[in-house]
Amino acid sequence: MKKLIVLLTALMMFPLTGCMGELTLNNMSRDIAKYELVQTIGVDSYASDGVTVSVSAPAVGDDASPLILTGTGGTVIGALEKLHNYAPKDKIFYAHTKNYIIGEDAAKSNIPGYLDFIERDMNMRLDTALFIVKEGTAEDLVTQTGEDDTEITQILLSMQKNTDLLSDCKVFTCGEVAANLAEYGCSLVAAVSLIEAENVVSGAGTMTALPAGYGIIKDGRLIDYVDAELVSGANVFIDGGMDADVMEIDDGYGGVMAFRTTLTRCEPEPVYENGVLQYINVNVTLTANIDSVSSNIDIYDNAVLSELESKISAEQEKRIEEILTFSQDLDTDFLAIGRRIELKAPVKFAKMPDKWEDIFSETMFNLSVDTDIERTYDMREPAGVSGENNA
Amino acid sequence: MKNVPNENAHPRKEPKYEGDISVNILDTIFTDCDDFATRKVYLGGEENCEVTVAFIDGVVSGDSVSKDIINPLTNKLRFGGMTAGKAAIDLILHGGIYSYAAKLRDTADDLVNDLINGFCAIIFENEKQAVTFEVKTGEKRGVSEPTGEKILKGAKDGFVETLRVNTALVRRRIKNPDLKIKQTIVGRQSQTGVAVVYIDKIANMDMVSELEKRLDDIDIDGLMSTGHLEDYIVDNKTSPLPQLIYTERSDKFCINLLEGRVGIIIDGLPTGYLLPGTFAQFMKAPEDYTEHFVIGSAITLLRYTCLMISLFLPALYVAIAMYHQEMIPTQLMQSIIDSKQHVPFDTSIEVLGMLLAFELLQEASVRLPTAVGETLGMIGALIVGQSAVEAQIISPLVVIVVALAGISGYTVTNLNLSSSLRYCRLLLVIAALLGGMYGIAVATVLIIYHMGTLESFGVAYLTPFAGDSIKTMSQAVFRWPLPKAKFREGALHGENRRNQK
Question: Are residues A201 and A316 in the same domain?
């Protein structure tokens, strides 16, 4: 009993030590309501070796406004710590950051330096989406987009959900980009540009962000962009193919037809002769459905369908050729073709007399695109039946 | 003056009342007992032959005393010409009086015991002997449906407050002389009858002996409530976890006897106890065996899930809201922040306050009559729930968390375990607010460690979860079709484990 009394007395002394100001022993604890939930962090270069950090926290509650802050510091974390003082709540909390944006100037100087913060900070996640601002700063993107109750986070999250369907661009995470840079020395990063919202939505008066292709990172710096018109060709190589795209083709009968490509798969096949890489066969298969017909073309005629398939193949081939040429002109294998042919025959790849980086720009590519129109979406087409009469 | 306890008052004095049988000694013993009654009766109606009939009014049936004892006792044809001596006693013991049970008593101690247990005595002063007959009053509560363990499919007869009725309920279900009912007395003053019930050749006899020993060791004034027994015979008296299974259902009691458990029935209490009490047994409900085995298993699994929710949900909420905000989905975090924006209290204060309010409501409603209790529940729900949220004193999510934990706790069928859970829940919340997930982990380890050290009559408390085969473990949660369950629980170490062909 005496022991129990001593123990209880000792326990009751705890509050007197000052360690339990908030009923906790651990001063790392902070109530959830005291946090500003930052979901987007933008970084720009500042002065000679400083950083400007802009953060955005979506509005929480019906009458609330988003919190947008900008500050400077020597490092990203240093600038973030300063921002705590300006937040209306106790602390800004960035463990739920969804988007990490790097301004163009910063991207041209030292991307690994800005990714280092993501890799080291225990609150940050490697699956945070990474963006580069084309011809702009992250600060502008974070501070100028949105209206009273929306901000850049919602816009970028919405963009991420739609990119797979619209094939505007694929969004890479910080972890993926860091791994690509470490392994291949180059990577693609989704690029966004800041534009007037009224150019996109009639009557809107503020700024918004739109996909702007890909930024090409080589040796830790932004060297160029894959422009929007080349994105479709690039997407064929990223993650093994593309799940959705819309292709508009002149049908040759005075109209334009729209096709929804549903599965585009790309398989680069290296051809070696005496251990020397001769050329790479790029075999692409895609399936397409007819989405829109504007002329009197007879889409039930097999000959017409074959002709359309050829046109789709030619268009796709052209796109791929353009992106390959662009990649070779830059002498940067940002499409990771080298990695894929290495996986096809690792020993042969390793024993090549010349390094892939040295021969990439001169490598021959034989393109072959095979298109199959699967659906016409016509009522006369029975579901689940294919054949000459059911095209 | 300081009240110093008399060390010599215990242990129990045997025999309690010394001396030969006489009316005078009875009058002395029952001084100031107005319900004690005696009546002089002429044996065979002859004045020179007087005996005394003694009984305790209210405990015995007056009608039976008149018709079955005094009427034949005064019958001249039966007892005429006899003296109040050996011959009369012999005739009485051999059917002269209409009673199914007659006992010859030579000592005042035995006689007093019989009288207080509802016997009527015929005292032969000259012989210093008495013959006693059981003529207990028939006024007792009838067998009815248990209020605490209702089921839709199954028997409706529950235990009542009368020991003999309860043993009869058991005997009616298990019509076998192997069903043993050993009765003993507990309580110096109350003299409460306690029956140890088991099935010979199925139960573990070491367990029966140990139980009998522990019952014999109880030396208390009265056995009036369940706690009086539980506190004295369980292995770990300081543990808040229940170690004896209690049931109001005679069918559940019998099922457990057939499984090899040992039962206890106490006079005056409408519950039966079963031992050993293991954690898995407390999680079972009678419905598990009235439903299809798939449904029964799913319900048991749901009950375990609810147990986890009830135990950990408030603590996890506190840990996440105060320490590990990065663990939850962003939208959920936004919702939590939104709901707490205007609440002036920390999460820890909110949760502790709500848990306290929940306990208050529960305690208050249990103590009140049903109608008032329901009203209190409704008022409490309105005040603690809706009004407090609208007044922005607590956040709606905390109400949901505490309510969900509370409701989940009610799925645990055993009231004692449910009560223990409430305190473990509070312990975990305190651990969470002190150390977040680390605190919860430490508290959980301590709880499991404590459970791991517990034993009930030689059987590990965590049986079959600790140190047994996967198959046996799974049977604690998943019920197989009964034709496949051919063996009784091995941990009970019964003499005969096979229960069917």
Answer: no
- In eight-state DSSP terms, residue A167 is -
Distance from CA of B7 to the nearest CA of A (A): 22
CA atoms within 13 A on the CB side of A61: 14
Q: What is the mean pLDDT of residues B365-389?
A: 74
What's the Cα-to-Cα distance from A184 to each of A100, A188, A266, A332, B58, rounded to whole Å? 22, 11, 20, 10, 99
* Structural domain that includes position A183: 31-226
Whether residues B112 and B178 fall in one domain: no
Average pLDDT over every residue of A72-86: 87
Q: Are residues A203 and A313 in the same domain?
A: no
The average pLDDT across B43-51 equals 82
Residues B224 and B272 in one domain: yes
**A280 lies in the same domain as A139:** no
Task: Note the pLDDT of residue A101.
Answer: 95
Contact in structure between A118 and A100 (CB atoms under 8 Å): yes
User: Is residue A8 in some structural domain?
Assistant: no
**Quick check: A25 contacting B, CB < 8 Å?**
yes
Nearest to A31 among B326, B346, B434 (CB): B346
**What's the start-to-end Cα distance of chain A, in Å?**
90
B15 contact partners, CB below 8 Å, separation of at least 6: B107, B109
What does the pLDDT look like over A5-62, one tens digit per residue?
887 777 666 556 555 445 555 566 778 888 888 999 999 988 778 899 999 998 887 7
The minimum CA-CA distance between B340 and chain A, rounded to whole Å, is 6
Minimum CA–CA partner of A37 in chain B = B334
H/E element holding B457? none
- Tell me, yes or no, whether B445 and B318 share the same domain: yes
A319 and A190 within one domain: no
In a domain, A117, yes or no: yes
Least confident of B11-15, B172-176, B285-289: B11-15
Cβ(B490)–Cβ(B472) below 8 Å: yes
Of A213, A260, A206, which is closest to residue A235 (Cα–Cα)? Answer: A213
Show which of A208, A226, A244 is a domain's final residue: A226
In a domain, B479, yes or no: no
Residue A60 in contact with partner chain B when CB distance is under 8 A: yes
| Encoded tokens for A27 | 């001063």
pLDDT digits (tens, 9 = 90+) for A185-235: 899 999 999 988 776 665 555 788 888 999 999 989 999 999 988 898 998
Phi/psi-derived region of residue B333, left when phi > 0, alpha when psi is between -120 and 50, beta in every other case:
alpha
B268 touches chain A (CB under 8 A): no
Which strands sit side by side in the sheet containing A40-46, from one edge to the other?
A67-73, A50-57, A40-46, A99-102, A129-133, A186-196, A207-218, A221-226
Q: Where are the alpha helices (DSSP H) in A331-363?
A: 337-344, 346-350, 356-359
The total domain count for chain B is: 3
Tell whether B318 is within 8 A of chain A (Cβ). no
Please state the ipTM of this predicted complex.
0.76
